[in-house]
Design a protein that fits this description.
mainly alpha; globular
C-alpha cells in the first residue's frame, strides 16, 4: 500500500477535514505508541499503519 492510499482510506472513514487531525493526535499502541504521522516518518509500512488504524477504529472487515 502506498502512503497516498493510506491517506485516502483515512479520509474515507474519518472525513477529509478530520483525518489529518486524528493522524496527528491519536497515539496507537500497535505502532509503538506513535501517531500515524510519526509512524510514517519512522518508516513503518503504510499497510501496517492502516491495519492499526483499522483496529483502533473497529472498522468492518470489508475495509481491512
Amino acid at each position: 500500500m502506498r502512503e497516498v492510499e493510506l491517506w485516502q482510506r483515512m479520509e474515507d472513514v474519518l472525513g477529509a477535514g478530520y483525518a489529518r487531525v486524528w493522524a496527528e493526535n491519536t497515539v496507537l499502541a500497535e505502532l509503538g505508541s506513535r501517531t500515524v504521522v510519526q509512524a510514517i516518518a519512522a518508516g513503518i509500512p503504510s499497510k501496517r499503519i492502516w491495519l492499526a488504524v483499522w483496529g483502533q477504529l473497529e472498522l468492518p472487515p470489508k475495509l481491512r
